[in-house]
Each structure stands twice: as structure tokens, then as C-alpha cells.
Design a protein that fits this description.
The protein has helices at about 20-30, 30-45, 45-50, 70-85; strands at about 60, 70, 90, 95-100, 105-120, 120-140, 140-150, 160, 185-190, 195-205, 210, 215-225, 225-235, 240-245, 255-265, 275-280. It is mainly beta. An eight-stranded antiparallel sheet has the order 10-9-16-15-14-13-12-11, with no helix packed on it. Strands 3, 4, 5, 6, 7 and 8 form a six-stranded antiparallel sheet that branches. Strands 1-2 form a two-stranded antiparallel sheet. A hairpin with a 2-residue loop joins strand 5 and strand 6.
């Protein structure tokens, strides 16, 4: 849960391509520059991004998860990390509108940021439905991106797409116990989508238990109509926060968001200001009634 939520993905929406055949279009049309930016992000062309994004030290941009960029170095670092962690990127533009006045241009855009990662020889694909606004300036005949603001188009954040590899159909989680209560016990894998970070949690029936990340522990505070609310605590790096996920009808997985409430001495962080997206998968079924989950003592 040590997250840097902008996988740099966020900038995806606005990145540029540097090949010679596009140069003239980039210099004369802000729309062409924006579309070239998107291509460059998909092609992991860092040289193009550097050339076609302004490097002014005081420029500020915002992206998903409460991430703030000041100047070029922050952007460059996150983009390089994203390019290294994603096996494949695809950024189809759904809608783009551009306005121009003199040497300034501004735009609104909706696009799908689809990233594929490979872990344990299995492919996982996630979709970030994004919307974005930004400002460009024409400098010496070339349009460059100054600043942007990006957010999700939906309320749930990233969405996992169908895996390209098959799963073991023999694992069929038990969700409802004999008394009709939802049973959350068992072993779960937790994926932090933005950081492509995976770890395991071992929970009891009430949804409480440790997880294998910085001495972490989950505490469930409410479960109603499959809406699962709780908190997380990490003693290893002195952080804590909350989460909200929606449990699937068969109890096999849950999707939602997490956020910080404290990082070291920094307290009273507004809920949902910093955070990211969760995908939980149940990898071991709940045990028979009366038996503890693996690794959980009675």
C-alpha cells in the first residue's frame, strides 16, 4: 500500500509522438499534437514526451489518486516507471474537442487507458476510463503541453478486463454460512492496480486479518448488500487508511478503492484524497463451518 497512484498512466491521456513524419502536423495543429501524445504514450516514446511537453519548473498538473506534478522531473520518473511495469499499453480516444486562440489551445478528452501486465506468466488487463482537460502553448512554431487535470469518468475507478489466461474453475468460494451471514474467511490476493503491486491477505469470517505488505492488517467495519467497508494499517511503514470494495455475487472477488488517512506524522488526510484502486481475488474457498481459515487461529 505504498502507492504512487499516477502510474504515470494518468499522463497517458496527453502524451506525444516524435517520429519525423508527424513533426509538421504537431507544429501546426494542437489536435494533431494531442493525438500524437496519446500515440507516444502507447508506444512508450519518452524522447517524444520530453520534446513535446513543457519543462517549466513552476507548471502544475493533477492526475488520478490525488497525485500532483510540479515541473518535468516528477512526470519523467513516473512515466519511466509505468513504461517499465506495463507489458503493453493501448489508449483509444473516445472523444476529443480542441479550442484555439492565438498561441494558446485548450482541450477536453475522454479516452480508455488499457494496460496489460504479466505476472507469474499470466496476463492481467485493466481499463482506466479517463477524462481530461489541458492547455497547450505554441512555442517557436511547435505546440507543447503545459498543464492538465485528469480524473475517472466513472465512480469505481479502474476496471479489470477478462484475463487472457484461464483460471482454475475448481475453486468455488463459499460466501454464505449456515446462519445466512456472509463469510469472508480464506486467503485473498490483493492487487493495487496503479502500482501493479500484489500481496496476500488471510482473513477470518468477519473480514479481519493480516496481509503480506509492510506488516499490514485489514479490519472490516461494515458489510451490507455486498458493499464491503474497512480500514488498513501498516506498521512496517507507519501508514493507515480505509477501503471500500464491492463483493461479487459469488464472493470470488471484490473491486473498489483505497485511501490514506495517515502517513507517519501527517494526519487528518481527507478520505479519498490520496489512494488508488483495489482488485481482490479469493484464491482459497472459505473452510467448512467450524473450521478456521488457513493461517487463522480460532
Amino acid at each position: 500500500m505504498v502507492h504512487r497512484t499516477a502510474w504515470a498512466l494518468t499522463i497517458g491521456a496527453i502524451l506525444v509522438h516524435s517520429s519525423g513524419r508527424h513533426a509538421a502536423a504537431e507544429e501546426h495543429s494542437p489536435e494533431a499534437a494531442i493525438r500524437a501524445m496519446v500515440r507516444a504514450n502507447a508506444e512508450k516514446d519518452m524522447a517524444a514526451l520530453s520534446r513535446l511537453m513543457a519543462h517549466d519548473s513552476d507548471i502544475i498538473s493533477y492526475t488520478i489518486g490525488g497525485r500532483k506534478y510540479v515541473g518535468w522531473p516528477d512526470i519523467e520518473r513516473d512515466m519511466l516507471e509505468e513504461f517499465g511495469s506495463a507489458a503493453e499499453l493501448d489508449l483509444p480516444i473516445r472523444e476529443l474537442k480542441v479550442w484555439t486562440k492565438g498561441d494558446l489551445a485548450w482541450y477536453t478528452m475522454e479516452l480508455d487507458y488499457i494496460r496489460t501486465v504479466v505476472q507469474d506468466q499470466k496476463s492481467q488487463r485493466a481499463l482506466l476510463p479517463l477524462r481530461e482537460t489541458g492547455v497547450l502553448e505554441r512555442r517557436d512554431g511547435q505546440w507543447v503541453l503545459l498543464s492538465w487535470h485528469e480524473s475517472f469518468r466513472n465512480s469505481g475507478g479502474a476496471v479489470q478486463l477478462a484475463d487472457e489466461t484461464s483460471h482454475d474453475a475448481s475453486v468455488r468460494p463459499t460466501v454464505v454460512s449456515q446462519n445466512g451471514e456472509t463469510d469472508l474467511s480464506g486467503e485473498w490476493t490483493i492487487l493495487e492496480v496503479e502500482d501493479n503491486k500484489t500481496y496476500k491477505a488471510t482473513l477470518d469470517k468477519a473480514g479481519n486479518g493480516p496481509y503480506s505488505q509492510q506488516g499490514g492488517r485489514f479490519i472490516t467495519t461494515k458489510l451490507e448488500d455486498r458493499a464491503w467497508h474497512g480500514t488498513w494499517h501498516q506498521t512496517g511503514n507507519d501508514r493507515e487508511g480505509g477501503f471500500e470494495v464491492l463483493l461479487s455475487e459469488d464472493g470470488a472477488q471484490a473491486k473498489g478503492v483505497w485511501w490514506y488517512t495517515r502517513v507517519g506524522d501527517k494526519k487528518n488526510i481527507p478520505p479519498r484524497q490520496w489512494g488508488g484502486t483495489y482488485i481482490w481475488k479469493r484464491i482459497a474457498p472459505a473452510p467448512p463451518i467450524g473450521e478456521p481459515a488457513p493461517g487463522v487461529t480460532k
